[in-house]
Amino acid sequence: MRMKVRMYCTHSCGYCRMALQFLEKKGAQVDKLYLDEDSALRKEMISLSGRTSVPQIFIGDQHIGGYTDLVELDMDGELDPLLAA
Ligand SMILES: N[C@@H](CCC(=O)N[C@@H](CS)C(=O)NCC(=O)O)C(=O)O
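# glutathione complex -> structure
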């Protein structure tokens, strides 16, 4: 089974695009939650992640962080097992 991936993002964010590309290359299906004009969604992201920057990525219930966190996790060999869980 492939783990569900959710990503809070905005349309203008370069890190969001890079994160999406990175995840899609891994074969992940990403639910994109656009904050651009949705202040409730932005509040939800901040409350779940404790961060204000986009993207904020979740794999299942686990908070991963942003693009650089995602790449670091992959370099540590921990991303693929999480996605495959
Ligand atoms: N290290 C972060 C950087 C993300 C970042 O700088 N995102 C910008 C948009 S592209 C942002 O949200 N800036 C506003 C803020 O930091 O509150 C990552 O890799 O995701």
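# post-check
The two ends are 6 Å apart (CA to CA).
The mean pLDDT is 96.
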